[in-house]
Design goal:
The structure is a homodimer.
Chain A (H helix, E strand, L loop, with lengths): L2 E4 L4 H12 L5 E4 L7 H6 L7 E4 L3 E4 L1 H13 L12 H30 L16 H22 L12 H15 L9 H11 L5 H4 L18
Parallel strand pairs in A: 1-2
Antiparallel strand pairs in A: 1-3, 3-4
Helix pairs in contact in A: 1-3, 1-6, 4-5, 4-6, 5-7
């Protein structure tokens, strides 16, 4: 069975867990606190980030961007109509553009700062970057999430799914990042009814169930987090 | 002819210019100052970043990550042995891991802050984020470049090129980002003889020539910038 080195509230790890779930792949999950910078972990991915996929005990695939391309190349064709990175060039461009948007832009502006300040810092020692949360950074992220939700609403008003007629990596990346924000109560669902309806559809998928069971020690989720009729 | 919307000192634009040069593709270059956020530009890439490739007047391919995958899918096979994203799965993983390293990690830690603070801010109005350069940010980036050069040196001591036996996207991404840093005189070549020798090899390629002819208005390049025997 493939092994996935992950963190339960790392948005990029959640993206790959959703992708593997949609592909019907099981994984042996191993939790890693990236900020501890364990030498064995850094030897697998010198960039020091989760997730890392390990196949056949020896093939190491680090970072969400690289794993998603690898999984499409090794499993994509067998999925047929349910392929998450569709075959036509123009559709691939749009799926990759939006996947990149959520894995990089949304992470930098919203899910990265919120998970760092509100979750990871609770477990980091001072010399690992721990300490009190930076309220300026949190406020900026909570402000930024609104225009991203508007953008999701704008996309879903024009298409069945974020990147086109079928569910794709773009939906899974967006939902993975938003799920962390939603746990923290910072997903401003009042901003866009379209975004809310799209997320309700994502959340009800079987691949989402394991994520909704995750908890941060000592921190309850928001009222909407595991409520499928929020 | 394909059109490339770029900025001469945007490291991601330089990466795609090098890729197109190595693939023997000509492009009609159109310069864009991303920070002006022109509506016509944002309609091509809502993320507001360069580069953007436009093919056949209608197919719009935004961001370096998406363009490099698209170019491999549409031109890669025809390159045979000179393909920049090689065919074997393990080699693709390593090329993508390192390309991602330079386009994201190195950009965040080194080339992004240096080009913003030292180049782009000279041309930005205050309401576009202009103003005096942030010396703390510059100092951090100049410190960070050293461990990246050590890493390049470590890789080249074990392989012909950064990701393996052949030149790949990884070399072109690394050289593109470093070329901006070198223009500014912030590439600490004394840190690694291996990194210096590898960069001299990259710089002497015909694909590099147009980049070495670029100048920032009112700012001379460092002594090493266009010297092939630095």
């Amino acid at each position: 069975m493939p092994r996935l080195i992950h963190a339960p509230f790392c948005p990029h790890s959640r993206f790959i867990r959703l992708v593997m779930g949609e592909m019907g792949m099981e994984a042996d999950l191993a939790e890693e606190r990236a900020w501890e910078r364990r030498p064995e972990f850094l030897s697998l991915n010198p960039a020091g980030t989760t997730p890392i996929l390990i196949e056949e005990s020896t093939l190491v695939v680090p970072t969400a961007d690289v794993i998603s391309e690898y999984l499409d190349e090794t499993r994509g064709l067998a999925l047929g109509e349910r392929r998450l990175l569709p075959d036509p060039p123009a559709e691939r461009i749009e799926v990759r553009r939006l996947t990149n948007w959520f894995n990089h832009k949304f992470f930098d502006e919203v899910s990265g700062p919120l998970t760092l300040e509100k979750i990871n810092k609770r477990f980091m020692r001072n010399d690992e970057g721990g300490g009190p949360p930076d309220t300026v950074s949190i406020r900026a992220a909570r402000n930024n999430v609104r225009y991203h939700l508007q953008y999701i609403g704008w996309l879903t008003a024009r298409r069945n799914w974020l990147a086109g007629p079928n569910m794709s990596y773009a939906d899974l990346a967006a939902a993975a990042h938003l799920s962390c924000v939603d746990y923290l109560g910072d997903a401003a669902w009042d901003e866009s009814e379209g975004a809310r309806a799209w997320y309700a559809k994502m959340k009800s998928r079987p691949s989402f169930r394991p994520l909704l069971a995750d908890r941060v020690a000592g921190m309850a989720p928001s009222a909407t987090y595991d409520n499928l009729d929020f």
